[in-house]
Amino acid sequence: MGGNDNMEQALEDRVNNRSRRVENPNFAQYIGSNWLPRQNDDVVRGPAADYLPERYRKLGEQFLGERLVIPAGPLKVRSNDTDYRFRAHSAFAHLTGLGGEDEPDAVLVCEPLTDRQGTPLPEVNKHETEDATHRGVLYFKPRAPRGSDEFYADSRYGEFWVGPRPSLEEMETLTGLHCADIDTLGDALAKNLGQGHVQLRIVRNVDVTVEKMAQQARKDAGLPYGDDAKTADEKLEEALSTLRLCKDAYEISELQHSVDVTKIGFEEMLQVLPEAAGHHRGERVLEGAFAARARIDGNGLGYDTIVGAGNHACTLHWITNDGPVNEGDMVLIDAGVEADSLYTADITRTFPVNGRFNPVQRKVYQAVLDACEAALAQANTQGCKFRDLHDAAVKVLVDYLDEWGILPVSKEESLSPNGQHHRRWMPHGVSHHLGIDVHDCAQASKEMYLDATLEPGMCFTIEPGLYFHKDDAMIPKEFRGMGVRIEDDVIITESGAAVRLSEDIPRTIDDVEAWMAEVQRRKG
Question: Which long-range contacts (CB under 8 A, 24 or more apart) does 509-513 make?
């Protein structure tokens, strides 16, 4: 009998069995009464708001007469009824200025102001189209009245559970965008669709509910939908990614802030390095120190921190971080703080655990450092293409591998397309774009990314390395079980110069050793 009774309750409702429900019909009125007026003086225009119109102009001119739908995405379940911290889709964050954990389930709609020929739509005020092709409208769930059940009983949106949500007016002040209740989104997506005026594109695979709504609106309007509209939708995603290739002044300032806080995080790892060296999970001692700083002065980590001591440094994406940090080894740390705006740093430094590089470590470290300098010098040559950064750094590393007698073929053969023997010890690319994603602009085309000429506002990493596995029989024993990577964040300035945002984070052999000693001196 008991088993049958349990089956009458839906599985999704059973998570509420741990607490009692209020049966009193007057409870909502009681709990929603006798509250002081809200103080909203702290809601001000966000620092990104002034930069949004130019982003809309650059995007919108590619999609005249098209409604562009960019969901933030929903919360993602971590376990049972516990969610991961929310992070919005990067394109949504870039075009709203919202960061942190702001607005799960929200949707940005770039509403067209003209038809596909650039003629203002009938209901649009013509002066609005003088400098714009689209109007940004942010659809989200605004704050509910205190007399509603949501106020106290809704664990997803209720103020008792997640804190006070903004009103429509407050969100308009913060973002500078038009705002509307998410409940009106369906009608907004369908408005004037397919009547010779408006088409629709959506960023797919972000919010299944919103995507179904958009596909239904297209179907009802007689427009291509489903797989027939996939290519069109992918063009939007590519354009949104390409839009971020050149950063504006606000974005650059946020990236610099992330780099500056990342330096502090590195220093705090160096402070606990002696404790890490005596711990069976020393890598996690270092990881934890950095994570604390990232959360205190930023939104958190830009990506999972890599702490690879000894042979673990040879695993490029080593994030298990459960090994010891042994005296006499080096430890490779790849870490970046994500700012509240979601812009992240991406820095790698390799340290001698005991504070001093031994002769072999110095030899390998200097080779990687020279490769870094070669790539930066290449970035400062006129007409440099993104792909040239990799070639400049790898040429230096191949020279060293050849000098050490490790390379099994000539330098020329290794560097040829049919060779690439050096990739046994340097398997990854030397650079990637950086921004609101650690690997930013990933959906940009090859022509706009790898084959593109460096331009002002482009921010990217330079990160060559050498990785000598402990069981690699092709290398001398003295090299085995160590990896070195040095990674800096670089910006192309308005003058076209390539400069390191991370210039203040020590990187030469002497400076790294002096830095480590200074951090320990301050600690003591």
Answer: 509/357, 509/362, 509/365, 509/366, 509/369, 512/349, 512/351, 512/352, 512/357, 513/352, 513/355, 513/356, 513/357
- Over the chain, what is the mean pLDDT? 94
C-alpha 126/C-alpha 64 separation (Å) is: 15
> In angstroms, rounded to a whole number, what is the distance separating the alpha carbons of residues 256 and 434?
12
pTM reported for the whole predicted model: 0.94
- Strands of 498-500's sheet, edge to edge? 459-462, 488-492, 498-500
Q: What is the pLDDT of residue 11?
A: 67
Residue 517: CA atoms inside 13 Å, Cβ hemisphere, count? 8
Output the CA–CA distances (angstroms, integers) from residue 62 to 55, 112, 211, 229, in the order listed: 12, 11, 22, 17
* pLDDT tens digits for range 368-418: 999 999 999 999 999 999 999 999 999 999 999 999 999 999 999 999 999
Contacts of 129 (CB under 8 A, 6+ apart): 113, 114, 120
Beta strands 465-468 and 347-352: pairing type? Answer: unpaired
Under 8 Å between Cβ of 389 and 462: yes
pLDDT at 1: 44
Token reading at 235:
């063009």
The tens digit of pLDDT for each residue in 83-136 reads 999 999 999 999 999 999 999 999 999 999 998 888 888 888 777 777 899 999
3-state secondary structure string across 342-373:
CCECCEEEEEECCCCCCHHHHHHHHHHHHHHH
C-alpha span between 494 and 56 (Å, rounded)? 22
> DSSP per residue over 456-494, as a string?
TT-EEEE--EEEE-TT-TTS-GGGTTEEEE-BEEEEE-T
**Average pLDDT of span 431-457:** 97
Backbone angles phi, psi at 203, to 5 degrees: -75, 115
